[in-house]
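Human:
Take a look at this sequence-structure pair and walk me through the tokens.
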Amino acid sequence: MVIARKKHVEGDASSVDEEIEVMTGSTLHIRQLPHFRLHSTELAKWLDQQPEHSWWSVDGDPLLTERLDFPCPPDEIADAVRKVNGGLLLLDSRPEPSAKGDMLTAEQLDEVAYVDEHDDRVFQLTWEGNPEIDWILIEDKETGESSLSLDDEE
């Protein structure tokens, strides 16, 4: 696969075009990696249990990004996820992933959450009906703290 053309120019000599090639393997999707299964109602239930001042964003999912403005409170995402009403696959991002399609409940989500360098919880998901599109649900503690500060000022 040719991704660019590089032009060499040496003094007054003629330029030579060189094709730069990159070998790419197939992109792995969540369904091909260790993952859990989860119904959207369980994810919605878990989001409903999050503090009101927590804020969340979604990146990469056209179903949710066309319905909501991000970041937003967890209840808004919970409502949207509930309306989609479908199965999800959740990447097992633990240090030693071992999931084999095990079904999760809302109560188990905290145990498998990836926590990033900002202490935000992150989930990498895909809808079972559209497994080619991986997307992330990420906590936005900075926005949550800002909104809490604004509420305190009022």
Q: What stands out?
A: The first helix runs from residue 40 to 48. The chain has a mean pLDDT of 82. Residues 57 and 71 are 5 Å apart (CA to CA). The chain is about 25% helix and 30% strand.
